[in-house]
Design goal:
It is a single chain. The protein is an all-alpha fold. It contains seven helices and no strands. The two termini are 26 Å apart. The relative contact order is 0.09. This is Cytochrome P450 cyp-13B1.
C-alpha cells in the first residue's frame, strides 16, 4: 500500500508540474513556444485562467465554466492512462452510432445549427470558447459513446 501511495503522490506531482510549466510558458510573452499549436492542456489552462480572472465570457448556461486545479489534474490523469485509445477510435464509434440512429443525428444537427448557425469564423478561438459550452447535446452524445464503448 505504501508503494501505491508513493506512486500516486509522484504522479500527482508530475501532473502539477505539467500544468505549472504550461502556465509559465503561456505567461511568458517572449517565449518561442508562443507560436506553437495549442493542445488540450493549453486549452484547459487558458480557459481556467481567463474565467478565474473574470475575463471570460459569461455564456449564461452555467455559473462555472472553468475547471478547478483538481479537475485539470483529473483530466490529465484520464487522458494519460487512456492514451492507448485514440480519439479517432471514439469518433468511429460515435459515427457508427449516429449512422444507426437517424433521429439522434437530427437532434444533434438542430443544436449545431442553433449554436453555430451561419457563422463563418466559428473555428476562431474566441468563438469556439463561447460556443463549446453551449453544445450540450453533442457533449451528451460523446459521453454516451464513451459509456457504451469504454477504453
Amino acid at each position: 500500500m505504501r508503494i501505491l501511495r508513493e506512486a500516486a503522490a509522484e504522479l500527482r506531482q508530475y501532473l502539477d508540474e505539467m500544468v505549472t510549466a504550461r502556465r509559465e510558458e503561456m505567461a511568458d510573452k517572449d517565449s518561442r513556444n508562443r507560436d506553437r499549436t495549442d493542445n488540450f492542456l493549453s486549452f484547459m489552462v487558458k480557459s481556467n485562467r481567463e474565467l478565474q480572472l473574470g475575463s471570460g465570457k459569461d455564456t449564461g448556461f452555467a455559473r462555472r465554466n472553468f475547471l478547478t486545479e483538481s479537475e485539470i489534474r483529473g483530466n490529465l490523469f484520464t487522458y494519460s492512462l487512456g492514451g492507448h485509445e485514440s480519439p479517432a477510435h471514439k469518433l468511429i464509434f460515435a459515427l457508427y452510432l449516429l449512422a444507426a440512429l437517424g433521429e439522434q443525428q437530427k437532434w444533434l444537427l438542430e443544436e449545431i445549427d442553433a449554436v453555430v448557425g451561419g457563422q463563418q469564423d466559428w473555428q476562431s478561438e474566441g468563438l469556439f470558447m463561447e460556443m463549446f459550452p453551449r453544445l450540450k447535446r453533442c457533449q451528451a452524445a460523446m459521453l454516451e459513446t464513451l459509456r457504451l464503448y469504454p477504453s
